[in-house]
């Protein structure tokens, strides 16, 4: 009877160990996927930042050119006699 | 016409609407991603409490595992949609900015054309006011010689006396000076070109003649076999040399009678001797015969 109890205890311990190993494997897989998700987010943030910076630069240059055009058109409208033959 | 107007307006509205809908969907996806965080927090608290307080821990653990996997997949899905919509929106914005750059460049070009027009107009108006005088070119040499020296264009070039015609002729004073210098120079270049061709022909002829004379003297000094070999060599060189040899044979005595033979070439063999060097007299008959022979060969 004691032997049967011991065997059952050993079996239970084995099962528990197996379950523990399964849980650890599951946790490692979950953590690995979460790290991959984190890496993707970091890369996505870098690319989006660069795209937004280039867009911002283009808009700045456009603003300056439009300001210049506005000034030139203003001077042209202020002196309409230049364009009359 | 009324039906066309809304159709014309609809494409513009649909573009704005499409951009608005794009931005709306992006904002919505972002909002859903943001809402996912408290849901995950609440699910984690519930699982912790149920594992601690319930008796069937294994079942709770299994449910927790399934929920964790589904939550992760859901979070990845939401992040993917947000990323896709954001990149799509950025691409649309860059396209709009590039189209605006093109329009601005068109405006720049239009302004530049207006500016150039004003500048040109101003220059034209200024040019009309100023009268710039023009001077004709008449160059007359100083009156020290009391003669006007210029080349006559009416010279007839003959084949025989072509080498003489290149000299300038002095005309008496009183000739009309209506011709400009550039015209005279142009006429001179034509005449000099004709003279230069005959001059080159003359030079080549004299060179050939001197070579032939040299070889003849060298052959005369040596044995008859050597001289015949030299003659053969000369004859094989070309038709010009053959013609020269013929003329040499025909008018062989003329240069010899006129002057001493080419003893200068002997001096190269015997440096001790010092003899007078005289160039052979180039008789007209000799040269004319040579040129005639050349012409016959060329024809």
Automatic annotation (TrEMBL), chain A:
Q: Which residues form a coiled coil?
A: 45-79
Where does this chain mainly localize? cytoplasm
Record's Gene Ontology CC terms?
A: cytoskeleton; SCAR complex
Task: Tell me the InterPro entries matching this sequence.
Answer: BRICK1 (IPR033378)
Which GO biological-process labels does this protein carry? actin filament organization; cell motility; regulation of actin polymerization or depolymerization
Q: Name one GO molecular function term.
A: protein-containing complex binding
Its localization reads: Cytoplasm, Cytoskeleton
Keywords attached to this Swiss-Prot or TrEMBL record, sorted alphabetically, are: Coiled coil, Cytoplasm, Cytoskeleton
The UniProt similarity line reads: Belongs to the BRK1 family.
Q: What PANTHER family does the annotation carry?
A: PROTEIN BRICK1 (PTHR33668)
* Entry protein name: Protein BRICK1
From TrEMBL, chain B:
Highest rank taxon of the organism:
Eukaryota
Q: Which InterPro entries match?
A: ABI
Q: Could you say which protein family the record assigns here?
A: Belongs to the ABI family.
Which purpose does this protein serve, as stated in its record? Answer: Involved in regulation of actin and microtubule organization. Part of a WAVE complex that activates the Arp2/3 complex.
Protein name in the entry:
Protein ABIL1
Species annotation = Escallonia herrerae
Task: Give the lineage.
Answer: Eukaryota, Viridiplantae, Streptophyta, Embryophyta, Tracheophyta
């Amino acid at each position: 009877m004691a032997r049967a109890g011991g065997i059952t205890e050993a079996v239970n311990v084995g099962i528990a160990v197996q379950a523990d190993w399964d849980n650890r494997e599951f946790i490692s897989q979950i953590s690995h996927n979460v790290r991959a998700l984190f890496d993707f987010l970091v890369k996505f943030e870098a690319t989006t930042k660069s795209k937004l910076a280039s867009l911002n630069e283009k808009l700045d240059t456009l603003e300056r050119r439009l300001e210049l055009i506005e000034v030139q058109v203003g001077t042209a409208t202020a002196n309409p006699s230049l364009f009359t033959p | 016409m009324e039906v066309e107007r809304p159709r014309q307006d609809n494409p513009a509205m649909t573009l704005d609407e499409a951009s608005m809908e794009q931005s709306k969907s992006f904002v919505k996806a972002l909002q859903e991603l943001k809402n996912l965080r408290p849901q995950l927090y609440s699910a984690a608290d519930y699982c912790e409490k149920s594992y601690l307080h319930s008796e069937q821990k294994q079942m709770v653990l299994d449910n927790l595992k399934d929920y964790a996997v589904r939550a992760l997949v859901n979070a990845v899905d939401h992040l993917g949609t947000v990323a896709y919509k954001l990149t799509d929106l950025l691409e649309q914005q860059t396209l709009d900015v590039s189209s605006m750059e093109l329009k601005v460049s068109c405006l720049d070009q239009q302004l530049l054309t207006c500016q150039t027009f004003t500048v040109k107009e101003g220059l034209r108006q200024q040019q009309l006011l100023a009268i710039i005088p023009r001077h004709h070119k008449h160059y007359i040499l100083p009156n020290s010689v009391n003669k006007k020296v210029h080349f006559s264009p009416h010279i007839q070039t003959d084949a025989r006396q072509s080498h003489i015609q290149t000299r300038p002729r002095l005309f008496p004073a009183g000739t009309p000076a209506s011709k400009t210098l550039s015209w005279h120079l142009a006429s001179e270049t034509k005449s000099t070109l004709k003279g230069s061709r005959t001059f080159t022909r003359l030079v080549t002829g004299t060179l050939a003649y001197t070579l032939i004379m040299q070889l003849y003297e060298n052959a005369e000094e040596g044995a008859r076999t050597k001289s015949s070999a030299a003659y053969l060599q000369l004859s094989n060189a070309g038709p010009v040399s053959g013609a020269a040899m013929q003329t040499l044979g025909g008018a062989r005595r003329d240069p010899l009678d006129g002057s001493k033979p080419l003893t200068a070439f002997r001096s190269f063999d015997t440096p001790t001797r010092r003899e007078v060097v005289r160039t052979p007299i180039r008789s007209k008959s000799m040269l004319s015969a040579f040129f005639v022979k050349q012409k016959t060969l060329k024809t």
